[in-house]
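Q: Here's a chain of 159 amino acids. Please give me its 3D structure as tokens.
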Amino acid sequence: MPRSGGNANRLTEDGSNSFPDWSPDGNWLAFASDRTGDFEVFVMHANGDNETRLEGSNGNEAYPVWSPDGSRIAIASGRDENFKLFTIRPDGSDLTNLTNTSANDVRPDWSPDGSRITFSSDRDGESNIYVMQADGSNVQRLTSTTGRNASPAWSPVIP
């Protein structure tokens, strides 16, 4: 839909489609869809053309988020009982595991400079916010409260 309003263009037809995220250049969308039976990650041109399931996507995946330089997409994948965080290239190659605990790690978000990823996890028994290097190293807990801390998002300016 144009920013000024008006008619919306339908981009997808099949399944339940969720968690859309624009590529940094605005030319692509990544999203999760259950059109094949399980939720998998797809990419398509911003106009809805060239819709492609990422080959590295293997069912039960959600929360795709583009890296600031557009070279990778962070996803949460439930392929190994609990959700783990991975990155994958937009062409579906080079699936890289970032977290490997018995917890659920979900809702990744890249720092504006692409050096870190924040996420939500229940690894300490409660849902808290964590941050790590973009390669999965140096995981640090940022919140320590009871209740549900979820859906972290970076400020456009890193202090």
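Q: Can you summarize the key feature?
A: The first strand starts at residue 17 and ends at 22.
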